[in-house]
Design a protein that fits this description.
With 478 residues, the chain is an all-alpha fold. 67% of the residues lie in helices and 0% in strands. Helix 1 packs across helix 3, helix 12 packs antiparallel against helix 13 and helix 13 crosses helix 20.
Length: 478
């Protein structure tokens, strides 16, 4: 069906095919048969790797499993080309992305190489998060199992058929995904490792994008616009929700659900790569900032948590303490700079975080007495003095205590902390942070740009200063 294009370049969702293709019918009916032998083989492969691993008697890392004895680099190139071909072909045939995952599992079963097994493991986590995450929020998405509106005779017409599809889902999605993660994924003993390591994570990252591009190329073209828009190349000419042409879910899922389905894959790859490459100190600091963002707690709370861990925990290293110092400086710069730009920010926050909770939760005889003080200049000045012990003196203490841990690495690690916090709040722009702080009237957009930009500018300047100092010290020694 041709797309109706408006002048605003907005498109209506594509309608899905009326019935299943023969390829999908064959796939759905035959897939459960191969689950047991495939999983048995992959389990044996995991056991062989464990016995030949660093814990074996010789104490050496096992040799890499490659294609037909090729050198590792050449084998990785061949395998990556195969993986890309599988993703592109399933997208072109308008088959679900779970079919891509299963074909990669079959490739891992046949080849038994590190890269294909590693990619299959990473995709297992992203498929489980995407599929069961969207089902948790939108239960009617389960109809994608039988092809949704194009399932025809496969759609459940009674309770028995419904139970059969639920069992099919457990056997084909949940069981293989969980077992792959258990056998080949991270654990307390192995850490975040995966066969082929960072190469497997990097090879996994573009696969759902290749699937998207191939799917867009197989859909009807639309008139006007650039070549990417006409050929429906995501993100220019294809919306994520239009992939429903493959799944046939009705009513159509909201854009946020499709964002979760595809974004969870990129999130898995990013987090896994970070766990494989970043020091534990940096991961711990990032976890604190992102955790507070997920809980919609102020950035200052996140910094205080980092500061207290740095002071009282002996298990953290110089990177963590350096992050506490750098982020402490930017917290003070952002807070007191905001008070200069928006003088009403402090009185408003005092009302939001002190007086309003007292009015809602305290007994009437208590709240009535406290609320009489609201708006008093003497009280505001007293609380402004108390704020020095919340922002100024603690951040100054952090910079003094941990000044020796400020380095090029800690400054670079501090750089994305506020952006990770922002991303964790699921905000799309800087000003959305005010949904947490609730300053009224809404501060101008440039205030939020200053808050986030000052952090990036300060950490960048510290990084450059440390690089310059190391360069000068190196020249002096020479």
């Amino acid at each position: 069906m041709a797309l109706e294009t408006k002048e605003t370049n907005e498109t209506k969702p594509l309608s899905c095919k009326s019935q299943w293709s023969w390829q999908l019918k064959l796939w759905k009916s035959r897939l459960p048969v191969v689950v047991v032998p495939l999983l048995a083989s992959l389990r044996n492969l995991a056991e062989e790797r464990r016995l030949a691993g660093p814990l074996a008697a010789d104490g050496f890392e096992p040799p890499a499993r490659t294609v037909s004895g090729l050198p590792r680099e050449a084998s990785y190139c061949v395998e990556f080309a195969l993986l890309c071909g599988l993703a592109a072909s399933t997208g072109t045939l308008q088959l679900p992305f779970s079919v891509t995952w299963w074909l990669i599992l079959l490739a891992a079963f046949v080849l038994e190489t590190d890269l294909t097994v590693g990619v299959a493991t990473v995709l297992s986590l992203s498929v489980l998060l995407g599929w069961y995450g969207v089902r948790l929020r939108h239960p009617h998405a389960v109809m994608a199992l039988w092809g949704g509106s194009r399932g025809g005779s496969a759609a459940p017409k009674d309770g028995l058929m419904w139970l059969c599809w639920q069992a099919w889902d457990l056997v084909v999605h949940l069981l293989p995904g969980v077992l792959m993660l258990y056998w080949h994924g991270p654990s307390l003993s192995r850490g975040p490792c995966v066969p082929a390591g960072i190469a497997a994570v990097a090879a996994s990252l573009p696969l759902n994008m290749l699937w998207l591009w191939s799917l867009g190329g197989s859909l009807p073209t639309q008139p006007g616009g650039t070549w990417a828009v006409r050929r429906r190349l995501w993100p220019w000419g294809l919306r994520l929700s239009e992939t429903n042409a493959v799944y046939g879910v009705e009513p159509l899922l909201p854009d946020g659900a499709w964002g979760w389905i595809f974004g969870s894959h990129w999130l898995v790859c990013a987090v896994w790569a970070a766990c494989l490459t970043l020091p534990r100190d940096v991961l711990l600091a990032y976890s604190v900032f992102m955790g507070h963002g997920l809980l919609w707690l102020p950035f200052t709370n996140a910094w205080w948590t980092v500061f207290l861990i740095a002071v009282f925990s002996s298990g953290v290293g110089p990177y963590f303490r350096g992050i506490a110092a750098c982020c402490g400086a930017t917290t003070a710069i952002g807070w007191y700079g905001t008070q200069m730009l928006v003088p009403y920010a402090l009185p408003c926050l005092l009302g939001v975080w002190i007086f309003d909770p007292v009015e809602r939760r305290a007994p009437t005889w208590v709240s009535s007495r406290i609320l009489r003080l609201k708006g008093s200049n003497a009280v505001i000045n007293l609380l402004r003095f108390g704020d020095l012990f919340l922002h100024f003196f603690p951040t100054l203490t952090a910079m003094i205590l941990f000044r020796g841990d400020i380095s090029r690495g800690s400054a670079l690690a501090s750089l994305p902390c506020n952006l990770l916090y922002l991303a964790s709040t699921r905000s799309t722009k800087f000003a959305d942070t005010n949904l947490i702080y609730r300053v009224t009237p809404e501060p101008p957009a440039y205030v939020w740009t200053f808050i986030y930009g000052s952090h990036l500018a300060f950490c960048g300047c510290v990084f450059l200063a440390c690089c310059a100092r190391e360069l000068v010290d190196g020249v002096a020694i020479a």
